[in-house]
Amino acid sequence: MASDNRLSDMSRPPLPPFTRETAIQKVRLAEDGWNSRDPALVVLAYSVDTRWRNRSEFAVGRVEAEALLRRKWARELEYRLIKELWAFEGHRIAVRFAYEYRTDDGGWFRAYGNENWEFAPDGLMSHRHASINDLPITEAERRFHWQPGRRPDGHPGLSDFGF
Question: H helices within the chain, ranges in order?
Fold first, then answer.
């Protein structure tokens, strides 16, 4: 079921322009949302007219973004994500990330990528451009072992793993 677009007038702090502290906070909030694997919840952080490039898929608006996420998490099982701030300025943030997932045939992957984000004054993300590469891994090579949902505080980040 598609998200309710009437929620478009809400504010999503922290708001731009970002400081280093608020950019890091925004990145962690995005990571937490995506680790929920709840498409209807995740898209609430995006503007109603958000524009995405995710791999070779393009989505315009929350409804298309939510559909993209539903397809994604139907095939990327046991998904666990870590994001890290790369750079920020004004109303833009760049992040790098890695996530691990299993396919329905039992294969494990680690996806590495970069995202460029642009935010509206209300703190909703208006543009998301993601470049992602998948690397097959063995189950023994997995590094992201927390219970589904939010990555626990104190769990190693990307730099800690040398990713």
Answer: 20-35, 39-42, 61-75, 158-161
